[in-house]
Amino acid sequence: MSPDxxxxxxxxxxxAISVLRLAGHLQTAGDALAKPAGQTSARWQVLAAADxxxxxxxxxxxxxxxxxxxxxxxxDLLEKDGLILYAENPAHQRAKLMVLTDAGKSxxxxxxxxxxxxxxxxxxxxxxxxxxxxxxxxxxxxQAVEKQxxxxx
Amino acid sequence: MSPDxxxxxxxxxxxAISVLRLAGHLQTAGDALAKPAGQTSARWQVLAAADxxxxxxxxxxxxxxxxxxxxxxxxDLLEKDGLILYAENPAHQRAKLMVLTDAGKSxxxxxxxxxxxxxxxxxxxxxxxxxxxxxxxxxxxxQAVEKQxxxxx
DNA sequence: GTCTATTTGACAACATATTGTCATTTATGG
DNA sequence: CCATAAATGACAATATGTTGTCAAATAGAC
Lengths: 153, 153
Hints:
The structure is a homodimer. The two termini of chain A are 19 Å apart. Chain A is mainly alpha-helical. Chain A is 67% helix and 10% strand. Chain A has one domain: Winged helix-like DNA-binding domain superfamily/Winged helix DNA-binding domain (Arc Repressor Mutant, subunit A), CATH 1.10.10.10. The mean pLDDT of chain A is 91. Chains A and B meet through helix 1, helix 5 and helix 6 of A and helix 1, helix 5 and helix 6 of B. Chain A binds a DNA duplex through helix 4 and strand 2.
């Protein structure tokens, strides 16, 4: 026989499971949005980060919550495809800055445009207040899960 | 210049991004919960599905929202480690049924027990009503995103 | 300035998951 | 029954991401 889960624990577990399932569908939707531009969610994320501001691979990793190795792999592919280039970084000899090329910019714009249509349609289905409250709860959970270290064995 | 995102679209996009970020942290937490038992989130999921009811690899894939190939890979590892076994399926010659061994059952119990402690602590941090409303919104989004096919290029 | 710790990119090994293909088995329509 | 369609497991290729390690570059302590 197993836990010991309180009603509050049940509520949080149900919330967590639904969030994980939704994330899977959002990931699929993101890939579909990026696909016509010949991209994927991962490439889109890196492109968007570099577009927000020129940054090193390691910085993008921190911004995206990924390891720098993972970002490096994607960034090298983006460079090979001519969507970004590695610009000299006056502040660091090794850590070159990712910068979008014109091709990268127009590719990102194409994805953003499709994403806008998608988000607008879905946003209309919700009461704005509910969406904002849910977002708040998700962010609260985000901070709590970050802080809450899992109990050691 | 890019979209065209409405306030409703902005609200949904913010919600989606926060959900994706939380899912990343939940995944990390899940791995940490499973690790002392020598498992991972992926193996835990498959164990839990097979524990809920003996089922084929393809059935588990549908239940977990994964491809049957992905489940197959994990299930073969679980079998090799003696946590599940493939039982004959009277209804289907090829599609054997995954069944937990005693080792599999106790491993799953260990993970569930740790998960209960974790969920109980986190659940206490929330107003139960907020958590339930957020879960509802997430589930609504789940269904909407499933239905909403991404616009073709 | 010098020594040390940290950061960074490069490289490799591995875990996870998807897509695609194939042959076998099961289900279905006639 | 039989022919065709669908489901299933097996196998391979690829995409994504983590962990671990190394050397070079930078930052910080003194």
